[in-house]
Amino acid sequence: MKMVNLNTFFKPKRIAVIGASKNPNKVGHVIMKNIIDGGFEGKVFPVNNSGGEILNCKVFTNIKKIKDRVDLAVISVPAKFVLKVVKDCRDKNVKNVLIISSGFKEIGNSKLEEKLADFLNKNKMMAIGVNCLGIYDSHNKLDTLFLPRYRLKRPSPGCIGFVCQSGAVGSAILDIATEQGHKFSKFISYGNATQTDESDLLAYLGNDPNTKVICLYVEGIKDGEKFFKTIKEVSKKKPIIALKGGLTEQGMKAALSHTGSLAGKKEIYFGIFKQTGVIRADSLEEMFNIASLFEKKIKFKGNRLQVITNGGGYGIISTDNIVSSENLTMAELSNNSKKVFKKVFPKTINLRNPLDLVGDATTERYKIALEECTKDKNIDGIILVVL
User: Fold this and answer.
1) The CATH number of 7-294 is which of 3.10.50.40, 3.30.70.20, 3.40.50.261, 3.30.1450.10?
2) 22, 203, 271, 348: which one has the fewest Cβ atoms less than 10 Å from its Cβ?
3) What fold is seen in the domain 304-385?
4) Contacts of 44 (CB under 8 A, 6+ apart)
């Protein structure tokens, strides 16, 4: 697996914001303000044809007029000007560009994006974007997101690294995560993946010391073989939890118009996830529930799970999910546990897995079941479903 060095995107010392604006409602102004208010400890250079001053920083009319070295350029200009701006970055010897601008293949403007990708590759430049929300690194105090901090919450420093194709889903993720107290190491919105793609970002997080668990929201991938090899390798180091968007025909069409991604059949993705050890989530809620287990460093002794419920149908669903999983198995109650339950539970309760406490289950019945199953050496973990 070839590694791409993305350190400068997350550890820059000097940032140029191209398209910076004096207007507080403009994206370029918001990005400038977020970088400063986020506590960035390096230098920030606003670039705008108008010159003057923005947020007490001198404005340069062109990135080439900045005398200092620039490590990262954040670009927020209309799509038709992006290639010219990237050429200016090349002339300034800026190798890393974060392109917020939209208006490319997601609206049918594929040729412009192809020209941009060709230029980046020929000049050995690295780009995240286009059409993205930006990146956020809580540990390095880097906030290039284009939504203001009072509107979009930022998670506290932690160990979850999130790679997200969609900016809209990304903003919801950040809000939910902050509200529920999940803590992030990095959040990366990569949009159309013009050059740097999800595989590159996952590989980077796989070696990031601040990231212990990786979450991925993906609508479509560009290079299936590269993706397969990358997640297979990374999932050996850290857990990857993936949520796939564009599962229906309508969803696939929406993905194409959203980030210009060919979504592909869900069975292919689900098969890849299963073969590579990636944990599949069916919703953001489920994704965060799973991530929290790793975030809190909860470790199971093994893979034998006991289901306890008072709803037979949910017991069946849980059983199906466990049995169909590559890494989990159903536990078998010990004879001792069965003896305890036989003494205190109604005869209508079948003493097996799942353990269905039936519809009239009381708090005391649940308490007995949990206490005994916790002591049972045949059981490594418990799934509790209460109706």
Assistant:
1) 3.40.50.261
2) 348
3) Rossmann fold (3.40.50)
4) 14, 15, 16, 17, 32, 35, 36, 57
